[in-house]
Each structure stands twice: as C-alpha cells, then as structure tokens.
Design a protein that fits this description.
Blueprint lengths: L3 H17 L6 H4 L6 H7 L10 H12 L16 H13 L8 H11 L6 H8 L17 H9 L21 H15 L9 H11 L6
C-alpha cells in the first residue's frame, strides 16, 4: 500500500505535469488577487453580458453582423451558436489582467460587444452629466441662452464640432435659428447605442455642445 507521502508526491507531480503538459492556468487563476478587466468594466458602470441577457445579446449580435468583413472576434454574427461564441470570446477578454499588453483595445471591445448596450443619454446620466433642456422653448422662437451661446461657438474651426450638422448661419438675427438647429441635433444623438462605432466620439461631442461640462 502506498504511503501517504508517496501519494502526496505523486499528486504534486501530477499537478505540475498538468501545467507543464499544456493545461496552463490563465493568469487570474494563478494570481487570484490580480485585478482583471472584468472588475474595471464593472467599476465603470457597465454590466457584462451573461446567458441571462438574451435580449441584450440579440441586440449586440444584430450590430455585430454589420461588421462581418472586419469581425472583432473569430466568429460570424449569423453562426448557429453565435450567442455562446460571443460569451466565450467576451470571457477571454474580461479575464485578462489589468496589466495586459493589449488592455486598451480589450476594454474598447468589451464596452462595445460584451456589455448590456446603453444609449449615450443613459451613459451620460450615469456619469452625472446634466444636459441642457431639449424641450421647445415656451416662447416660440426664443431659445435659451445656453443653446444660443453654444451655437455661436459651433463654427467650422471648432474642436469636436458635429460635422454632420448643417452649417450654421452667420449674421444678425440668426442666433435663435442656429440654437434651434443645435438643440434638435442633440436630440437625435441621445439614442446612439454603445454598439455603434461612433458612440465614444458622440459622447465627447454631446458633453462639449449640449452641457456645461467639457471633455
């Protein structure tokens, strides 16, 4: 009968052999106290996708299918097991440690493809950014001074300007009309989803032009 010492030794060699033979543990399991991208994403207010988020997964995959030619992961959006494959790819990403060499790109992928989607409005609410009122002015034709001031600054040379906003007019009596255009343009940007390639850029522009916060 093998002694307890022999059994312990054999067990130790077996564990070492498993690692040496290719069953390599990922860094988070070898160093469980090392922060992972999962913790960073969650601290930033995002909810990582799980199998219980069926509607959110479907929404993400609809957007993912539009990226078929440059798929960020190794599967196509219309694969029969696309949902499972998405969760697997996301798991690989969020288990990476915070010191991973490809951290920034990994976080970008996670926030776009691996979380419950949010609109720009929802994200800004979470960040505590208070936007100007989107309501039509009570006195028709007289926009609030906040919108008037912002519209004056939205010139062709302005940083972070909206290139898809119709050129604002110059000259006397144009302030309210320009402010109206800018306000309405804002409303159309509040529903941009985090799955959209323009999401981060739109967030910055909304903060710059539709609030008193600056990026």
């Amino acid at each position: 009968m093998a002694s307890s010492t022999t059994v312990k030794l054999a067990s130790g060699l077996g564990a070492a052999g498993a690692v040496g033979g290719g069953a390599v543990l990922s860094k988070p399991y070898l160093f469980p106290n090392t922060p992972t991208l999962k913790s960073e994403i969650e601290k930033d207010g995002w909810t990582l996708l799980t199998s219980s988020h069926s509607d959110a997964i479907s929404e993400v995959l609809v957007a993912y299918k539009t990226k078929q030619q440059t798929s960020p992961f190794s599967f196509k959006g219309d694969d029969s097991k696309a949902s499972d494959k998405l969760l697997q790819e996301c798991k690989k990403l969020y288990e990476r440690t915070a010191d991973h060499s490809d951290k920034e790109n990994s976080l970008k992928k996670l926030k776009r493809w691996c979380v419950v989607p949010k609109t720009t409005k929802e994200r800004l609410d979470y960040l505590g950014v208070t936007l100007f009122s989107m309501d039509d002015p009570s006195n028709s034709g007289n926009e609030s001074q906040d919108w008037v001031n912002k519209a004056k600054g939205h010139t062709d040379s302005a940083a972070n300007r909206f290139t898809d906003l119709t050129t604002l007019e110059t000259g006397d009596g144009k302030d309210n009309g320009n402010a109206n255009k800018l306000r309405k343009h804002c409303s159309s940007k509040l529903t941009v989803k985090s799955t959209d390639e323009a999401f981060d850029d739109t967030l910055i522009k909304i903060k710059d032009w539709y609030s008193n916060h600056s990026s």
